[in-house]
Write a structure and sequence with these properties.
Shape: globular
Distance between the termini: 24 Å
Strand order of the largest sheet: 1-3-2-4-5-6
Radius of gyration: 16 Å
Number of helices: 8
Order of helices and strands: EEHEHHEHHEHHHE
Number of strands: 6
Structural class: alpha/beta
């Protein structure tokens, strides 16, 4: 879903673009839940985009990260029509969406990390101006909750997710470099 101020409808004007990834513990949620919030942000002078992603356990890690990366590619290809300023992207998210946005920001920022995850970024680091994060998980090893819940079991597709080598790349806090974009973290 793409929102922008109504006065842009018949213009070629582009705006800084916030791409928001919804929460839901990787197993639930929808871009529909954040649509009203994105409309409010758009009214303040932004193009805002709500992104859905495949939910676990039907799809597993890193499918959601790939899907949000594909959304960025779509926005690049349709930038003028959607009033997207290709030079001013902001990734944002809440809860699981925050983790997905952070991981994608690191893929965009660190070529070696992108290679290890196996995802080629859809935009350049210079296009990503910052990230906005609410209530995310950035290091799975720090949360005892995950050992007792089925959330990461569903997301990784294995009961033994704590020994899954992909958990290290999922734990983005351990992977961030100096090239990581500015963060608003709440």
């Amino acid at each position: 879903d793409v929102f922008y101020p109504s006065e842009l409808q018949k213009t070629d004007k582009v705006l800084p673009t916030i791409v928001w990834v919804h929460g839901g513990s990787w197993i639930s949620g929808s871009k529909d839940y954040i649509a009203n919030y994105l409309k409010i942000l758009a009214a303040k002078g932004f193009t805002t985009v709500g992104v859905d992603y495949p939910l676990a356990p039907r799809e597993t890690y890193p499918a959601p990260v790939r899907e949000v990366n594909a959304a960025l590619a779509y926005l690049e290809q349709n930038a003028q029509r959607l009033h997207v300023d290709q030079s001013r992207f902001f990734l944002a998210g809440d809860s699981a969406g925050s983790q997905i946005a952070t991981q994608l920001a690191n893929i965009i920022s660190a070529p070696s990390y992108a290679r290890s995850v196996g995802i080629a970024p859809s935009i350049e680091r210079s296009q990503l101006r910052g990230i906005i994060l609410y209530c995310g998980v950035y290091d799975a090893a720090l949360g005892r909750f995950f050992k007792r819940s089925g959330v990461l079991w569903a997301y990784f597709g294995t009961k033994d997710f704590m020994n899954d080598p992909r958990l290290e790349e999922f734990s983005v806090a351990r992977q961030i470099t100096n090239n990581f974009p500015p963060i608003f973290l709440s």
